[in-house]
Amino acid sequence: MGDNQSGVPELILVGFQLSADMEVLLFCVFSLLYASNLLANGMILGLIWLDVRLHTPMYFFLSHLAVIDMSYSSGSLPKFLENLMYLYLAFASTECLILVVMSYDRYVAICHPLHYTVIMNWKLCSVLAITCWPCGFSVALLHLILFLRFPYCGSQEVNHFFCELLALLKVACGDTWINKVLILSSGAFILVGPLSLMLFSYMRIVLAILKIKSKEGRRKAFSTCSSHLCVVGLYFGIAMTMYLVPDNGHQDEQKKVLSLFYTLFNPLLNPLIYSLRNAQVKAAFNRAVQKQRHYE
After folding, report:
1. Backbone angles phi, psi at 272, to 5 degrees
2. Residue 294 within a domain
3. Which of 17, 93, 118, 195 meets the CB 3.0–4.6 Å disulfide criterion with 139?
4. Cα angle vertex 147, ends 144, 149, to 5°?
5. Looking at the whole model, is its pTM more than 0.90?
6. Range of 216's domain?
7. Domain-located, residue 72
8. Which pLDDT does position 162 carry in this prediction?
9. Rounded to an integer, what distance in angstroms lies between the CA atom of residue 185 and that of residue 179?
């Protein structure tokens, strides 16, 4: 056993078992999706930066979400184990916390509209956003430290397309109960806790919206929250399915597909959901296009 162990392993990522033609096709598709993700989130960042009408707390947090989404999918590309696992976990955890902060922003906007500018001042927004980043990266660092202590023996084939937590546990030697406890604990901290806070916020928001007498007012209020709810449902639903549902040993392929959706599709859906359903973003895009035509 001792001869087959290594502290700094060269792990083989199995990925998806596909034919050569299918690999070429998927390479083209995923490359297009990745480029679209960078373009769409970059466009959101550019519009928020250039249009002063979007210099509000809601779009401030949305700009952080765009940065995370671009970094999140890009974090799956490095080849080194430390960078790959660390970046993936760090950006995923940070996105969960940013989504919580965005739900709080919507809660204040709808439940306390007269005090919104006082409560959501730029000092508070900056503190909330900045706090999310070190918290997310700290959770990832704890996982990384615990994984680096493991020797790896026997088969060094990781049944995944990147160094994902649960896939790595299956090829690690030694007692992994501490890692499993940390996964459940961080899942409670990053997923269950934030989701509970968001559900409580949206319960208060729905009650406040139902008290609005104007039908148009209720429609606008629901519209401002529906985009965020779509993102939260997709993001937290997939994450909780992957990390909090007990593993029966026969879900490896399904979890790889979910991870692929998480890594490529979800970061692309965020700007599409927020832009296509948001009149202010579309108006800012039209103003940017008109300004560019004026310069030409």
Report:
1. -65, -45
2. no
3. 93
4. 115
5. no
6. 9-287
7. yes
8. 72
9. 10
For the chain, what is the domain count?
1
Q: Does a structural domain hold residue 2?
A: no
pLDDT confidence of residue 8 = 46
Residue whose tokens read 């940070």: 94
Q: How is 137-167 classified by DSSP, letter by letter?
A: HHHHHHHHHHHHT--B-S--EESSSS--HHH
The answer to whether residues 191 and 240 touch, using CB atoms and an 8 Å cutoff, is: yes
Looking up residue 176, the CATH number of its domain turns out to be: 1.20.1070.10
Question: Which is nearest to 61 in space by CA: 272, 270, 253, 295?
Answer: 270
C-alpha 29, offset from chain centre:
21
pLDDT attached to residue 101: 92
Report the interhelical angle of 215-243 vs 193-210 (nearest 10°): 160
Task: Extract the tokens encoding 252.
Answer: 């490896």
192: in domain = yes
Contact between residue 59 and residue 52 where contact means Cβ atoms under 8 Å apart: no
Give per-residue pLDDT as tens, 52-102. Answer: 888 888 889 988 988 888 887 665 544 444 445 667 788 888 989 999 999
Burial of residue 144, with CB atoms counted within 10 A of its CB: 0-12 exposed, 13-18 middle, 19 or more buried: middle
Q: Which 3 state secondary structure label does DSSP give 12? A: strand
Q: Please, is 74 exposed, middle or buried when counting C-beta atoms within 10 Å of its C-beta (0-12, 13-18, 19+)?
A: middle
pLDDT tens-digit readout, 30-44: 777 778 888 888 888
C-alpha neighbours within 13 Å on the C-beta side of residue 173: 15
Residue ranges of the chain with per-residue pLDDT less than 70:
1-24, 26-27, 73-86, 152-156, 248-250, 276-277, 292-296
Give how far the C-alpha of residue 72 lies from the chain's centroid of Cα atoms, to the nearest Å.
7
* pLDDT at position 12: 62
